Amino acid sequence: MDYRGRFAPSPTGQLHFGSLAAALGSWLCARHAGGQWLLRVEDIDPPREVPGSATGILAALPAFGLAADAPALYQSQRIAAYDTAFERLRAAGQVFPCWCSRADLAATGGFHRDGRCVAPPDPQRPPAWRLRAPDIEVAFDDALQGPQRQNLRENAGDFVIRRVEGFYAYQLACVVDDAYQGITEVVRGCDLLDSTPRQIWLQRCLGLPTPRYLHLPLALDDEGHKLSKSEHAHPVDPRDPLPALRRALRFLDLPAAIHAASAEALLERALHDFDPSRLPHCSNRLAA
Ligand code: GLU
């Protein structure tokens, strides 16, 4: 099968160093495999969205030499597909409405298990909808981090696929769209390593293929905190792309030629002897 990779930013701020490193890692893997590199704007969480950031991110990527092979897919345009997936899960009896609050679940470490709610149904308020997490081990072989396994019931619990506000959750939208875009390998940051078993379980429930996964190390700030767009940390400047691109290449242990005159030249050099298996590992492991 032809390789298809993707970069799937949430429009919660401008492109920052951490997301540039993830975009670069997924672009390199796709180009190395002679495959396609696609974009997806994960704009299904309006309260967290920063106006203008989707346009800003999409405009910045080509300045860093990261050109996609097709126009970006917007998740806000995909609600009908999520409705279909949701109805399928509901018809199969795999989801249930839930009125439990965070406080209700504090006694079980925030986990909801065995479809058993603490809060009673409340017809005055809309529920969240959760997918039942069975007592099984989900295992996968991460292309960089090696074999991973997670007991879904213990370490994920029944998880939300549609939120109280009516928005679909990241896990459901991501799985539906990775399949829709024909993604064969998901390359992203290690912070999502522990979402992967839930996504694989959803793929099984929906009869969708499971892509390969490769989780990159996560860029941290000087204090060891995750660089996240929502913290407005370290935006990169597309008008002066070479310094940030060199940093991102070094972060992935790749050559960052001093004399290259353009982003494209830097990328060409990095791609020349790129080997995905030599990317740096991250320290995350899943609790089984
Ligand atoms: N939208 C997520 C983020 O910006 C990434 C999702 C993914 O790569 O699966 O962190």
Tell me what you see in this structure.
- The chain is an alpha/beta fold and 288 residues long.
- The chain has two domains: 182 residues, Rossmann fold, CATH 3.40.50.620; 83 residues, Glutamyl-tRNA Synthetase, Domain 3 (Glutamyl-tRNA Synthetase, domain 3, Alpha-Beta Complex).
- The chain is built from eight helices and ten strands.
- The strands form four sheets. The protein has a three-stranded parallel beta sheet, with helices on one face.
- α1 links the parallel β1 and β2.
- α5 packs across α6.
- The longest helix has 16 residues.
- It is globular and about 65 Å long.
- 39% of the residues are buried.
- Bound molecules: glutamic acid.
